[in-house]
Amino acid sequence: MTTPVNKYDLGDSVRLQSVFTVDGEARNPTDVTLQIKNPAGTVALYNTGDLQNPSTGTYYRDVTLDDTGVWDYRFYGTGTVIAADEGKLVVRRSEF
């Protein structure tokens, strides 16, 4: 089974989010990193201090999609919770 890829329009703002758990219970890793690769292949790197942490185990960053094509992203936690989560999204071309 393949994971569906969400599609967005150029200029949309999206919330990239991950929830870290241990044995089904939300936990904060010691450090969290988010990597975002835009369609041009440029990778932006965000660390714990650059991310929102509204509740235990939940981390997110709002991103404006300023290029058409496939975007890839990866959250990973280290220290007290070692886990990773990856995703992909597509930004459609605009006729305008």
Structure overview:
The chain has 96 residues and is an all-beta fold. It contains no helices and ten strands. The chain has strands at residues 6-9, 13-19, 21-22, 25-26, 31-37, 43-47, 52-55, 58-64, 69-78, 83-92. The strands form three sheets. It has a five-stranded mixed beta sheet, with no helix packed on it. The protein is elongated.
Unreliable residue stretches:
none
CATH T-level topology: Immunoglobulin-like
What is the highest CATH level, the class?
Mainly Beta
Main sheet strand line-up: 1-10-9-5-6
The ordered H/E elements are EEEEEEEEEE
Q: Helix- and strand-based class? A: mainly beta
Quaternary form: single chain
Percent of residues in helical segments? under 10%
Question: How far is it from the N-terminal to the C-terminal residue, by CA?
Answer: 35 Å
Largest sheet: 5 strands, mixed
Helix segment count?
A: 0
- In CATH, the architecture is Sandwich
Write down the overall geometry: elongated
Strand content: over 45%
Rg, rounded, reads: 14 Å
What are the key terms here?
mainly beta; Immunoglobulin-like; 5-stranded mixed beta sheet; 3-stranded antiparallel beta sheet
